[in-house]
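A protein record in our archive is deliberately plain, so that people and models can read it alike. The tokens are whole numbers drawn from a learned vocabulary of local backbone shapes. For reference, a complete record is included directly beneath this paragraph.
>
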Amino acid sequence: MVKRWNVLLAGVSGVGKSSLIAALCGNAGTVAKTQALVFHGTRCIDLPGEYLMHPQLRRNFLTTALDARAVLFLQGADMRPGGLPADFLRNLGKTPVIGVISRIDAARANPPAARRELSRLGLAEPFFAVSIKDEQSLEVLRQGLAERGLWTEQGTA
């Protein structure tokens, strides 16, 4: 099966998926709430958080993930666990899932709690810790994706 997009960004609402895509791609500015799947060339798919927050929509996430070479799963450093079942992300089979701790610069950031939640969901370290306001953390993520053949400046690997 040919994977049409490099990465699918997933996580609950408010975790910063759309903001992270904009920052990674150098598109600063206002980011709108994602109401439906948003496709960014061949580089990535932005998934509405509701696809994970509502059990009846989780099948849509699993189906969409089939078209991605990898899933970037975001957990906000300042957010409570999203209510997904333990090991939920193992349902993706052979699609690699990369853990990202977002919003590390938030006032109530608790990166160790975010790490525990990503582990509970079935992800293995290392996790990327990022802030959209910290270009160095974004560059570390870009490099990590590039090493996996998932990111180039042109958007395709």
Strands lie at 5-10, 38-40, 44-46, 68-76, 97-102, 128-129. The chain has a mean pLDDT of 87. DSSP finds five helices and six strands in the chain.
